[in-house]
Design brief:
Blueprint: H1 2-26, H2 29-72
Helix pairs in contact: 1-2
Length: 74
């Protein structure tokens, strides 16, 4: 799940960059703005994916520590 999203969001960021640069090259402010918005949106999605992954890892770490503590106190 995480890897698929990461690749897709990186692709969206690259597409946004291309749009923004194309808009700049041809003087199309609307295209430039849309490309910039696409870049920012995809970066936000990447940050959210990273945060979700860290939360899953933290949850697993806490679960593992709880299991170990339970086993020690049996």
């Amino acid at each position: 799940m995480g890897t698929e999203n990461k690749g897709r969001h990186k692709g969206q960021e690259a597409a946004g960059t291309m749009k923004r640069r194309a808009g700049g090259a041809i003087g199309d402010d609307e295209l430039r703005a849309k490309g910039g918005a696409d870049e920012k949106r995809s970066r936000g999605k990447q940050l959210a994916d990273d945060a979700a992954q860290r939360a899953r890892e933290a949850k697993e770490d806490i679960s593992q520590r709880a299991r170990e503590a339970f086993d020690r106190n049996r």
